[in-house]
Amino acid sequence: MKPVLSILPLALDKVTFEAGGKRLIKEVSCALEAGPRSVIIGPNGAGKSLLLRLCHGLIDPTSGSVLWSGAGGKDPSLLQAMVFQRPVMLRRSVAANVDYALSLRGLPAAERRDRVDDVLARTGLRRFADRSARVLSVGEQQKLALARAWALRPQVLFLDEPTASLDPAATLAVEDVIAAIHGTGTKIVMTTHDLAQARRVADDVLFLYRGRLFEHSPAGVFFEAPRSAEAASFIEGKLFWRRKEIAS
Amino acid sequence: MSDLYAALGAAASLIFSFNRDLVEIVLLSLRVSLTAVAVAAIIGLPLGGALALFHFRGRKAVMVGINAMMGLPPVVVGLVIYLMLSRAGPFGTLGLLFTPTAMIIAQCCLVIPIIAALTRQTIEDLWEEMGEQLRSLGAGPWRALWTLLWEGRFSLLTAVLAGFGRASAEVGAVMIVGGNIDHVTRVMTTAIALETSKGDLALALGLGIILIILSTGVNGGAFLLKEAAQKSQMS
């Protein structure tokens, strides 16, 4: 097998996205390197999910460019995966959900079986293998969504608020799986509006507010001494708490 | 009122004696309608799915057209197909007019728009829910189409049943292209119309009762199938 080169770093150059005449993402430029877990944080409506979709190629920027490094001729989209806020499960068994993703990549049946077994074991879902995916709890479904993404052995895994609809126990379980995936060498790019989670998970932080990237710093720097005033007030929980709107 | 009771009694005796003419008519009806619905499903399900997923020029016009065709009057469809299949028509040489095949073609034309329109709606909703995940996993549009048709199987069964309802209840089209020929193209609905006009209410009523039983049976069977399949998804 030819060695697959890294598609990282990912370079965003003045990426702008407009919809309905509104600029929702404004000239975002940054570079995401292989290795550290990058967490995009910001309040609701900041454009975090949009930025993730732009990176993953689900939507195209209105202007600017999203550039992956060469993957030795391989399509970079085949080396990425994404997990969404609400897990999307097919109406089939847990194992078949993972198998479906692998079959889309054209893997032979024997290898698919091995990989399905492997990721289900690693995520503690093996005992549910033959159950219908849709009857699992939301937390287990999200673990399955992670397992499905993991089975693809992506170089980059995008996670869009993966724990936003989960209780604390399920949140920790999902974070454990994310850590395990990161441990196997996959780059994690995750959005969250939860500062505590960002502190737990992030190696570097991208702070997004109103479609603009205000700051991209290592996590230690960001939480101790943020460079932008907006980030500082977000960390203090003060940001954008607009009295007028609440009063009216 | 006594007419009705007499007719009911006669109808019951016809049904329970398995009158040979009656059986023949019932079997032909089922053959025509079920074949028409099967063919219409093979065409209508992918067509509706494609309309949901592929955005091409003129898509909206096609959608409006199909929605409008859901309400096509069967007699008009019958007439158009009659003209196509008649000796002077473009397909006259096939000699299909006044055969069960002509009736299947006519019912197919009536059922395809129903299945396609309902399928489009179902698949559009599913795409809304799952589209990004499927694209993220690397499914191309064709693969996504088959995946979503399978995902929507329970709702789509209802679409197919709606199509069967239209096919089995319809008189006008099969009357025109089939001709209601005894032992050849006589089906339940055309026989009911004929016997009523002849005044043989017993046979008409007997056929009517059987038609209702069959259509309830098919729908009930499909419902149980759906329940069982859904239950197996829940275990």
Please describe the structure with a list of short key phrases separated by commas or semicolons.
A: 248 residues, 6-stranded mixed β-sheet, 24% strand, B: 235 residues, 81% helix, globular
Alpha carbon gyration radius of chain B: 21 Å
Largest sheet of chain A: 6 strands, mixed
- The dominant shape of chain B is globular
How much beta of chain A, percentage-wise? 15-25%
Structural class of chain B: mainly alpha
Q: What gap, in angstroms, lies between the N and C termini of chain A?
A: 64 Å
**Residue windows where pLDDT falls under 50 for at least 5 positions of chain B:** none
Distance between the termini of chain B: 53 Å
Rounded mean pLDDT of chain B is 91
Assembly status:
heterodimer
H/E element order of chain A: EEEHEEHHHEHEHEEHHH
Decide which structural class fits the backbone of chain A: alpha/beta
Query: What percent of residues of chain B adopt helix (DSSP H or I)?
Result: over 70%
Mass-distribution shape of chain A: globular
> What's the Cα radius of gyration of chain A?
19 Å
Q: Kindly report the greatest chain-chain contact and the residue count on each side.
A: A-B, 22 and 18 residues
Count of DSSP-assigned helices of chain B:
10
Write up this protein:
The complex is a heterodimer of chains A (248) and B (235). With 248 residues, chain A is of the alpha/beta class. Helix content of chain A is 36%, strand content 24%. Chain A has helices at residues 48-56, 94-104, 109-122, 138-151, 168-183, 195-201, 219-224, 229-235, 243-247; strands spanning 10-19, 22-32, 38-41, 63-68, 80-83, 156-160, 187-192, 204-209, 212-218. Chain A has a six-stranded mixed sheet, sandwiched between helices. In chain A, β6, α5 (168-183) and β7 form a beta-alpha-beta unit. Chain A is globular, with a radius of gyration of 19 Å. Chain A starts with 9 loop residues before the first strand and ends with a helix. With 235 residues, chain B is an all-alpha fold. Chain B has helices at residues 2-16, 20-53, 59-69, 74-85, 100-137, 141-151, 153-169, 172-178, 188-198, 201-234. In chain B, α2 runs parallel beside α5, α5 (100-137) packs across α6 (141-151) and α5 (100-137) runs antiparallel to α7. Chain B is built from ten helices and no strands. Chain B is globular, with a radius of gyration of 21 Å. The A-B interface holds A 53, 56, 58, 77-78, 80-82, 84, 88, 90-91, 100-101, 104-105, 131-132, 134-135, 148, 152 and B 129-130, 132-133, 135-139, 143, 147, 150-151, 153, 232-235.
